[in-house]
Amino acid sequence: MIELENVSHSYGGSELLCDMSLNLAPASFHFLTGPSGAGKTTFLKICYAELHPSHGAVRLFGADLAGLDRDGVARMRRRIGVVHQDCGFLDHLPLRENITLPLLAAGRDVAAEDRNMAELLNWVGLTQRADALPPQLSGGERQRAALARAVILSPDVILADEPTGNVDWEMSLRILQLLVELNRMGKAIVIATHDMNLIRAAKTQVAARVLRIQDRRLYLAGADL
Ligand SMILES: Nc1ncnc2c1ncn2[C@@H]1O[C@H](COP(=O)(O)OP(=O)(O)OP(=O)(O)O)[C@@H](O)[C@H]1O
């Protein structure tokens, strides 16, 4: 679904990611770990074509990114749901409108999706908070709303950058549960995290693999977590 072949990336001449290859299979579940500043967010940006790598090839759903025009890239990106580290909400818009922004961007009729929206809000436990503004939400509510927005276009892959970064353990488990449910529905999941307890908790439920970025390289971690 997402294939990286010998991908390297540099910011301003200094190499951050070196010679990374990955083939993300349908319904797979991966964690992405590594020290702060190792390049996890950069790696995810390359995976969802927000960033073009300095070297190497990226293929999304079989299509070489280098051969796609803007519309082609946008079409592929709709198949990838992203939970950003900072959620990235528009603070002046109620939660409901923030969540439906991807529908608008994709040219879909938001009113026609009312029922799906109600189901989605219920799934993330935010039915009562639909009209709240993002600054009025708790960390856990924001993260669940970000997840709802990431899945509103029914993507095949979900990339979540520190989705449990600012929440307590109970809420971390709740968010993990939502991601596990998505995985059981056949979605491929990648979660960037520092939280080894979260990885251990996931491994009791799904066959999760652990990728690690260290010293500019991508490793598949051993089974010792
Ligand atoms: N647009 C940019 N221009 C220049 N340098 C950047 C840019 N984005 C990130 N970097 C640098 O690249 C390095 C890796 O950043 P990145 O956010 O990918 O790491 P990370 O592993 O996700 O970090 P963290 O765990 O702290 O979130 C950092 O040193 C960062 O300052």
From TrEMBL:
InterPro entries: AAA+_ATPase (IPR003593), ABC_transporter-like_ATP-bd (IPR003439), ABC_transporter-like_CS (IPR017871), ABC_transpr_LolD-like (IPR015854), P-loop_NTPase (IPR027417). It comes from the Bacteria. GO terms for cellular component: plasma membrane. GO terms for biological process: cell division. The keyword Cell cycle applies. Gene3D superfamilies: P-loop containing nucleotide triphosphate hydrolases. Residues 2-225 form the ABC transporter domain. SUPFAM superfamilies: P-loop containing nucleoside triphosphate hydrolases (SSF52540). Keywords: ATP-binding, Cell cycle, Cell division, Nucleotide-binding. One of its GO terms (molecular function) is ATP hydrolysis activity. PANTHER family: CELL DIVISION ATP-BINDING PROTEIN FTSE (PTHR24220:SF470), IMPORT ATP-BINDING PROTEIN (PTHR24220). This is Cell division transport system ATP-binding protein.
